[in-house]
Specification:
Blueprint (H helix, E strand, L loop, with lengths): L1 H7 L3 H10 L7 H14 L4 E2 L5 E3 L8 E5 L6 E5 H6 L8 H9 L14 E3 L5 E4 L5 H6 L9 E3 H10 L8 E4 L12 E4 L7 H22 L5
Antiparallel strand pairs: 1-2, 2-3, 3-4, 5-6, 6-7, 8-9
Length: 224
C-alpha cells in the first residue's frame, strides 16, 4: 500500500476505501507484519562485500543467524543478524583471517612498539630480526630462524663466517663469558659434551678478570 501511495500520489485511506469497494478485504496489522517479516527474511538478495565475503540472505537461517562466507579462506559460518545488518565495519571474515588482516600492517617495523629489531632475552643473548638479513641470507639461514622471524646474533656471526647454516648440535661458545660480546674473535663452535656450563663460564670469567688486574698491577709496579 505504501508503494501504491507513493507511485500514484494517493493517500493510503483512499486506496483502502477503493480496495474495500472492489471486494478486496484489507490485511490486518498482524498479517502485514508477518508478511513483511517473511519477505525480509526469505526474499532478500545475497550481498557481496568489498573484501569478497558473501552474506547469504536468501538461505535459511538458524536462530536468526545468517550464513556468511569468508572472503579470504572461503569458510562458511553463521553470524548474528544484527551484526550483518547494522554493524558498519562488518567484514564477514572469519576470526583467524580477521586477525591476520588487522595485524598485517602492524608487524615488525610497522608496529608502534618496534624497538629496532634487536632484543635481549632473559638468558642474556641478543636476538635480531630477519630484516637485518639480505634476501639470500634469509633463504640460507631459514632453518636458524624461530617462528617469530628472529635469530641469535652470535650464531648468525658464525654462520656468516662459515657461509652456511648451523646445525642444532653446533653450540656457539663465548670465550670471555660475556654473552653480549658477539665479535667473531670471541666466538667458538663446540659440541654439547665440551661446552662449559654456567659455573665453569663464571670461573673462566673470574680468571680472566684476575689476570687483567694482575697485568695492570705489574705494569704500574704496584706490589700487594
Amino acid at each position: 500500500m505504501n508503494s501504491l501511495s507513493k507511485q500514484f500520489h494517493i493517500s493510503r485511506p483512499k486506496i483502502r476505501s477503493v480496495l474495500i469497494n472492489a471486494g478486496i478485504p484489507p490485511r490486518s496489522s498482524k498479517e502485514q507484519r508477518s508478511l513483511g517479516a517473511f519477505c525480509r527474511y526469505h526474499y532478500q538478495e545475497d550481498r557481496q562485500l568489498d573484501n569478497g565475503s558473501i552474506i547469504f540472505w536468501s538461505k535459511p537461517r538458524v536462530n536468526k543467524n545468517v550464513l556468511v562466507q569468508c572472503g579470504h579462506c572461503g569458510k562458511q559460518r553463521y553470524c548474528q543478524l544484527r551484526a550483518c545488518k547494522f554493524k558498519r565495519n562488518f567484514t564477514g571474515l572469519c576470526p583467524l583471517c580477521f586477525n591476520r588482516n588487522m595485524n598485517k600492517d602492524r608487524f615488525a617495523d610497522k608496529h608502534p612498539s618496534w624497538k629496532g629489531g634487536k632484543i635481549l632475552d632473559k638468558r642474556g643473548y641478543f636476538y635480531i630480526y630477519k630484516s637485518y638479513l639480505s634476501p639470500e641470507e634469509i633463504i640460507l639461514f631459514s632453518s636458524m630462524l624461530n617462528n617469530r622471524g628472529y635469530i641469535f646474533e652470535h650464531r648468525l656471526v658464525i654462520a656468516r663466517a662459515l657461509k652456511r647454516a648451523l646445525e642444532r648440535s653446533e653450540i656457539v661458545h663465548h670465550l670471555n663469558g660475556i654473552k653480549t660480546d658477539n665479535r667473531l674473535c670471541n666466538l667458538k663452535i663446540v659440541c654439547a659434551s665440551t661446552h662449559p656450563g654456567e659455573e665453569q663460564r663464571f670461573v673462566d670469567s673470574l680468571r680472566s678478570e684476575i689476570a687483567r688486574l694482575q697485568k695492570l698491577l705489574d705494569d704500574n709496579n704496584i706490589s700487594y
